[in-house]
## 1
Amino acid sequence: MVLAAFILVAAAGAQLASAHFGIEYPTWRANTLSSSTNYSQWTQPCAGAPVLPDANRTDWPLKGGSLKLDLHHAWTYIFVNLGLGVNVTNFNYTLSDPFWNSTGNGTLCVKSLPLPTNLPATDGTKATIQVVTLGESGNALYNCADVTLRANATALSDSECVTDPGVSYVPVQQASTAKSAGTMASVDIVSLSAVAGLALVFVFGMSL
Ligand SMILES: [Cu+2]
């Protein structure tokens, strides 16, 4: 009986952990994966987690620093934004331009994520980093990490910033749309109609 209860709890925990994502560095505002809280990563801008007194605020390099994510989905689009202030409501700076497409679940560490050069920040400026992930349904997940921008803060070392094997990301180049459209035009029209025909057979087959 005890064992059964343990397995049930373990299974529930595993299911929870398999969903959504975490920020490992800088320290996130709250553990929004914890089942003991009412945070929801579906809630923008920061999963419903309120800004705490400076306990969870990390000193982060003024020119940009490291970001370490714990990804739980097979793939996702990732957007990293930044807003200035203590209680940020407007995340109007984008740190991922273009946005990223990540593959694999596990730790993804970006050692040096530069801040915009025109950012009106000085040593001691408070800011919040917002990470948004977007999956195939179009619904987004949100998490935030509060930082103090510091001239003397440093990025994580190579040994602290390790990406798990099988995890990677690529910036999504907008130019690739035009490129694939060009490729599409050169595709043999006969093979295209053959594919369409097969699709129709499949659809009718399914409805019978
Ligand atoms: Cu999820």
Note: The CA atoms of residues 23 and 69 lie 5 Å apart.
## 2
Amino acid sequence: MKLLDPRTLPGPVWVVSPHPDDEALGCGALIAALTTLGQDVWALLVSDGAASHPGSRAFPPSRLSALRLSEWRAGLAELGVPPEHTQTLNLPDGALDRCDPAVIRPRLQAAFAGAPPRTLLLPWRRDPHPDHRACWTLLMAARPAGCRVLGYSVWLTERGTPDDWPPADEARPWAFEIGGAAARKSRAISAHASQLGLIQDDPGGFTLAEAMVARAVRGPERLFEPLESGGTAESLSRQDGAP
Ligand SMILES: [Zn+2]
């Protein structure tokens, strides 16, 4: 696996999160490295994040969504991405696979209009969460031609099957070592208090496991660049239609 040099990623770089926290867990150190280098980095939040604690009375969906948006912006600020470099789509958490790419495409293009991406960081196409996979499909249908795409992994190590990892002819694997960014990455993850035990009145609610957070902070971050990245949208949709 080759080491990723952040100086080789053309800007503007957009980091796309299906849910608040994916960016911090999956590629927080890379984001910190890019902003430290002075790269033009932007962030897009795709879902409203309202589904992590469906049984909480203290945090009904609208309050939870507002909290998670503020956590996302606080975590990004730790990584050097200011609030004015953020965009949100507010699509329904847990139901991104029911969103029509043709309907979402103009909204994505509008979100990107101020700084069209030359590099997109997305959860890997088979990162094992339905929203993460749907996010890939939505973004690949809307990305500008020639835009470089790297899929970061969030749940691949914990939940992935061997088939979820890309074979050598599908994507080029990259590793990004955490290095001196561990403290910033850790603070960015810690900003997501709602996912770390803050909400106490929903026993079925989601909580990030300590071991998962520790692995994410330890690194390395793993990214996969589809071999057709930079190719035409047509060739990509053909591959996305494959089983
Ligand atoms: Zn997620």
Note: The chain has one domain: 2-240.
## 3
Amino acid sequence: MAMAMAICAQLSSSSPLFHPQITKKPFLLPSPAATISVHGFSTLRPKSLSLSHRSSISASAASSTVDVNEPVKKSVRTLPFRVGHGFDLHRLEPGYPLIIGGIDIPHDRGCEAHSDGDVLLHCVVDAILGALGLPDIGQIFPDSDPKWKGAASSVFIKEAVRLMDEAGYEIGNLDATLILQRPKISPHKETIRSNLSKLLGADPSVVNLKAKTHEKVDSLGENRSIAAHTIILLMKK
Ligand SMILES: [Zn+2]
């Protein structure tokens, strides 16, 4: 989670945010033969990551690499259920759109990020990846890769769902909590939930969304940031 936060900080610190746009380009994950640097996130190769091809990923002498596939091998072996948690936070800045769950929410500020800064979709992706025992969103979709600049976060969701499906799991249920001081989410909650369900290919009854303020304290409470938590239960198909 700390890593995810660090990555989001990296995303936030990169300059201009683009409005979300649907990319028609094929979406690719790193090759299983690629070495993923925990600290650099820059050594991913733009080839498809397949859970069914689990060649080993080398560990460097500096032990700064992770084996993408080793946890998956364990995870898909026998477990009938897997739980994942996702957390994300973005800084809010004037002049940017506020995209939550793929929906453009009217507000006086939005997320400055490498992608569209969709805090909800990012943490749902991390929850799915976490449940599968995969590296987090920042490792799989590195902000150093220009192809994710301004990307609609729905592409990350679709890829996470593909990986879940490939591993033989489906969504049991999902519970997400948005934390922001403003604007009020209640008028948009059903639209967001419905869109999230659609993106996940899940029945809306298993996708829950809550929202709360931060009691006007800290950056969240001062309308300077937005955060989200997600817990997801995956079930073996
Ligand atoms: Zn994010």
Note: The first helix runs from residue 2 to 13.
## 4
Amino acid sequence: MITIESVELVNVRSIGRAVVEPLVDGGVTALNGPRGVGKSTVLIGLLYALFGTTPDGVPAQALRRQGSEGEVKIVVTFVHDGQRIVLERGLKGRNDTPYAKVTLNGIEQTVGKIKAANEWVIRRFGDLDATGFLAAFVVRQKELDALVKARAADRRALFERLAGIDRMSDAVKTARAEETAAKTTLEHLPGSAEEAAAARTDLQRAQEHAATAWKDFEAASAAVGAEDQALAQATEHFEDVTARVRAHQEAAQTAQQVEHHRVLTAERAQHAAREVDRLTAASAGGTAEAVHAARAALTQAQQAVAENQAARAAARTATAAATADARRAQQAQAAAARARTALTAASAEADKQARLTTAVPADLPQQLQAANARAGELQEQRGVLRGEYQRLEGSIKALSATVDPTCPTCSTALADPQELLQTLRTALDRVREQGVTAKAQQEQAAERAQALAAQIAQAQQIQQAAEFARQQHQAALAAAQEAEAAADLLQAEAEASAQDARQAQTRAEAAVAAEGGVRTAFEAASARLRQAESAAEAAAALAQALATAEEAQTAAAAAVTAAEQAAALAAAAAVPDTERVQAQAMLTAAGQRVQELRSAMQAAQAEHRLAEQQVKHSEMARDQAELRLKNRAAAAAEYERRTAVREALDTFRKDRIARLAPEVSEVATDLIARMTSGRYVSIELDEEFTAAVTDDTGQTRPVTWLSGGEESVVAFALRVALGELWAGQRGGLLFLDEPFTAQDVASRTAMMAAIRDLPNRQVIIINHASEATDMVDLVLNVVPDDETGARIEGASAFIEMPEAVLAGIDEDDLTPGPIASDDRSASIP
Ligand SMILES: Nc1ncnc2c1ncn2[C@@H]1O[C@H](COP(=O)(O)OP(=O)(O)OP(=O)(O)O)[C@@H](O)[C@H]1O
Ligand SMILES: [Mg+2]
């Protein structure tokens, strides 16, 4: 049960700010006001607050009162199943974004998004959405006509919608779709009981085969085990024979080696005997005395050869010395001849220089001294004359200036200065001449002095050259004497050396003559010595060879014995061929048998493995077949369940449809009797929801035969009846939007009375005017205000009833006596 406690609207459509607080404990509340003031806006706001829906699906932003600023909100407070719920919705922000807020028993719920809030409300009403809410709790004039006048199909749809059957139809449709899907799934699913049974049989067969294969394998394994032992014995025997063959081979090898040794030893003994024979022959005559005598003869021969060689060497040396001395003597004589020539030249030069020295005068220095003194005197004289001349020249210049006619300021005290001037000039000329003479003389004296000085220098050079020539002469003399003495000496020496050489030559010639005999003797002595020495060596080796031969003989005898023994051993170790071949054959045969049995065992094992695999395959096949069967069974069950659901829903729906007309007819019959004050006693809906009414005379006629007003009453009765079926015993809100439009006062009163009698309903009625306010417990006026928007004012039914409306009402229809506003309405400002 839902009961509205208040609806607050701010800036919604035509309303500026209003709070509607209807009666909550069973009374009827009326919303009064002129056309277009905002009465239905309250219902629109209520629906928006509850479900977020707007009329005709316009956007929520269209709810904002045009020209208004600030908040837009609707706050609905209501009680549902004993719990107080506050739903607030509105627009906020620059873009008028919708928001929602839900408070349950004073605790704000976290619903978040708008959609979540919508879902929260629908859930709270037990899946009742906006359409259901309208069907159950709201009666609007618009729908009423369609309930009786619409085409059959539309009417039926409308009835079903208002009765909530369309929701059921949807559920049936969904269930049918699910049923079809389940059927399709089942049809497409593989698997069957036969298939599963066949798979099980296959598995059994495979298991039996695997068991047989295992037994075969075990038998083959046992056979292999038994034959393995025989093979081990054959192997052992064969290895024994093989070891013996190997031992015989080794003994034969040893005997061969020993025989080889014996042959070698015998050869060595023969060789030693031959060597002894040879050495015995070679050692004849090899005594120590013979060797000594041969050695002495050789020494003598060697001495003779040495002397011979020394004599020839001495001859060569002496000849060379003589030749060298002769050459030095020649060189010394040539040097002596050169020294004599040099002496002769030096003597001539010394004589020439001596002559030149005697030709130079002895007083040359004195002459030079006198010439220099005369030049000095003349120099002095020239100086005096130069002074005199300059003095005279100065005087003449001074005097000439004084007597110059162009000098007006000059004057002289002399009577005739020209005469004095002439005298001075003459004296000057004379001095000049004397000077020139003195200069010439001085130059002559100087030249003479220079010539004398040159003469003196020349004389000194001559003297020096003479002295040098004299010394040269002395030296050349000494050298010549010395060279001659040396030449004499060397000559003597050369002669002596030639003498010696000649003597050495003579001796050498004698030695050459003797040389042939000496060499022959030497060679004979050497040969004798070599013979004697080798014979002695052979004699020494003979003893050694004898010992060796003896040893070889002994070794050869021992080797013969050893060879005989080794041959005997080898013969003893020999293995008969038959035995060896037999052992080999036995081993091969045993190996082959084992090999064959082992192959058989492997084959059996492979067979068993295959059989096991086959078992696994069969198991898988069986599992799959069973799984398919299970899935199929599950799908079949699902299909059955879906079919059952669909059938149940369908049955239920059909039942609802079948019962809807009679049930509505029943409730509507009750209502129509009261709303028409007994003129009509029943309403009957057929299967097509076509209504027929029966009047108080018992006559039944289709609703279309009725007057417009009567038709409206029937429609209203049907509509309220539908609502009653929805709300059931629970009651609660019944919001009526202008239900009495086509009714006269009496009719309206009767209808109101019927409504008032509905049990447990909170009736809010939008009344275009205050036509039936005498039946209303609380009147709320919607007051227009162009500037601030319409608002709600509480009022008594009589005060608010406009005169114009009252004028049209039959006085008798009005039941006197106002219904006083309750305390709450009085408190509304
Ligand atoms: N967003 C809006 N802003 C301002 N006015 C609006 C807005 N939307 C609708 N209206 C106006 O609000 C007025 C109230 O409309 P409403 O349906 O509530 O009137 P009413 O009182 O039920 O009138 P009637 O008796 O004719 O049914 C109308 O005149 C309508 O044109
Ligand atoms: Mg309206």
Note: The domain at 2-162+676-827 is CATH 3.40.50.300 (Rossmann fold).
